[in-house]
What does this fold into?
Amino acid sequence: MGRALVTLFLIATLAAGCGSSGSAPVNAGSQPTSTTPPATTTPTTTTPATQAPPPPPPPTTTMPATSATPKADPPKPHIVWKPIPFSAQRRAEMAAYSKRHYGIGSWRLVHPHVIVEHYTASSTFSSAFGTFAKDVPDSELHELPGTCAHFVVDHDGTIYQLVPLNTMCRHTVGLNYTAIGIEHVGTSDAEILNDPVQLDASLKLTLWLMWRYHIPLGDVIGHNESLTSPYHKELYPPWRCQTHSDWLPADIHVYKVKLAALAQRYHVPIGPYVRPVASGC
It folds into this structure.
C-alpha cells in the first residue's frame, strides 16, 4: 500500500508540470463545498522499498474541516436607511403591475435571484432620491407605480437603502419580480469604475447580497444585459425587448472581475456558470 501511494504522488507530480490548471468553485451555496478528486487506477509499476517516503501533499478541500482555510463571511457594509414613501397605495400599484407583467399579483419580493447594476444618469443622490420618491407614472413607459431601486451608492461611498428587500421595485423591465436594483450616482459606467471609493462600496454591497441570497456571480448583471438573463420574463408584448444602455457588457465584465476577486478574499462561492439566453430581440 505504501509503495502504491508513493507512485501515485510521483505520477501527480509529473502531471502537475503539464500545464493543468484549476477552476473556480461552482456551487452557489452560502458555504464552500468540497470537491471530489478524480478517480485513479492502480499503477502497474512499483517504487523500490529503499526510497524515502514523499512529503505529505498540500491541504485540499477534501481534507477535514480543521485543515481547510477558515471561512470569513463578507461583512455587511454600512448602509444608511433612507426610505422613500411606499404607501399601501403604492404597494397595491406594484401588485397590479406584477400581475400585468409577470402574472404574480403581489408586491412582495421573494428570494431574489438577480442583482442588477444601474447608474442614475444624474450627479447627486438627492436628485435620484427625488425621482424615486415620487409615485407618479414614469416619463418613459408611463405606468404606475413610480420607478425605484433598493439601493443607491453615492460618490463618497455612502450606501443608501430606499426600499426593504422584501419589496419589489420598478428598476428593470422583465426582472423586477426577482431582482434587487442597485443604482450608482453618476452618468456613465466609466465614471463609477474610475471612482475608487464609490466602486469599493458597490462591490462590498453586491458581494454581501450575493452571499445573503446565494446569488451566483453570473446573475449579477448590468441593466443592458437584462434581455439575456435566464430570469427575464415580460408578459406585455410591447415591452418584451425594452432595456437600457447602462452597464454595457464590457464594463460589467470589469466590475465582475473585481467582484470575483473580492469573493475569493472572503471565500464566497461565485456559483455555477450562468449561460445567457437568446433574447430574440
Q: What stands out?
A: Confidence is low (pLDDT under 50) at residues 1-69. The first strand starts at residue 79 and ends at 81.
